[in-house]
Amino acid sequence: MATATVDHATAFDAAVAADERIEPRDWMPDAYRATLVRQIAQHAHSEIIGMQPEANWITRAPSLRRKAILIAKVQDEAGHGLYLYSAAETLGTSRDELLDKLHTGRQKYSSIFNYPTLTWADVGAIGWLVDGAAITNQVPLCRCSYGPYARAMVRICKEESFHQRQGYESLLALSRGTPAQHAMAQDAVDRWWWPSLMMFGPPDDASAHSAQSMAWKIKRHSNDDLRQRFVDICVPQAESLGLTLPDPDLVWNESRGHHDFGPIDWTEFQQVLKGNGPCNEQRITQRRTAHDEGAWVREAAAAHAAKHRSSTSNGSDSSGSGSGSTSQGEESA
Amino acid sequence: MTGNTEWPLWEVFVRARRGLTHTHAGSLHAPDAELALRNARDLYTRRGEGISLWVVPSAAITASSPDEKDPFFEPAGDKPYRHPTFYEIPEGVQHL
Lengths: 333, 96
Hints:
Chain B: InterPro entries: PaaB, PaaB_sf. Chain B: This is 1,2-phenylacetyl-CoA epoxidase subunit B. Chain A: This is 1,2-phenylacetyl-CoA epoxidase subunit A. Chain A: It comes from Streptomyces triticagri. The structure holds two protein chains of two kinds. By secondary structure, chain A is an all-alpha fold. Chain A has a single domain, classed as Ferritin, core subunit, four-helix bundle (Ferritin). Chain A has a two-stranded antiparallel sheet. By secondary structure, chain B is an alpha+beta fold. A three-stranded antiparallel β-sheet of chain B has the order 2-1-3, with helices on one face. The mean pLDDT of chain B is 90. The termini of chain B are far apart.
């Protein structure tokens, strides 16, 4: 038994070292599995909670075109959540368990979604900055060592690109509009810039899981490296928008070949993480309410399916059909 | 909501266009096959990725075990003569 585990561990290490993918039924260290469940679940929850701040503006979108785009984007976020829940389930957790942990606060979601969308321009700023930061984070995850997570990320990144471009286009329209519209766009960027930088997580020297996740090739780049990449990408994009980024220390550093930027307020980050952000309470309450109010639909559909099964099987041994699925998830087979 | 109401899991296969096989796209939960198809359409073909869908109960799939992958697939390992590159053909011989 001990030898078998050692063999398994060697095979796992070799696969990771050779940049091969780990698949659901492969042996993996318990801590690797736990890290993935934590990260994928948090990622899935973020997609689902992230529907709220944007859905807030669907009924008030300024044109039918913008409204249709926003609905499609929010629907995509739901889809992304579902891809990711499926990936998490391949690790032996269940959908119900994941939702329960979100609803009871035992698993987190990205703290960015605890900020409010005060104006229409916030929808554009979220697309440009929040989705932009997410893409910067997610592109390297397409090469993550865990197969189902990497495959979900490939699909998500493809779809995410429209999210960012529609946001940028929307902000550009405002920026080139009336002085009031321009001011609204600038105000949204001013409020979303710093929280977007926080999306990359704590600085490398304070990041609890970074080193191990990089050794396992779950993560491919450090938080600070990705944050720097994002800043460098955003500066010229902001110029083209005709908007400024709210950081007086933001300046090109010729010797580093990167932009220097001002210090991030990590106390704010910690406060929002602890539940003291502007919308923490509202987001989780709305999620729980939606889940509870949808219970009758889920139960009715399950009852309908059970009734249909027993009527088509002529009563002969219908007990084992369907409902006892193994719930191992995508490609567990 | 507890585990006993959880809908079963389905594997989704998408045919991207005529001439191609159905390819595994991912999985989803649904109470029955009809709703699994509808959910699959909404989840995996939002951008015209498919013209045909299969949904299969995950529990109905029988899989080889990763633990025995070496012995299970070993018979093919020592038969290089199944590949065309195994054979030596004089230079200049064409259409072979």
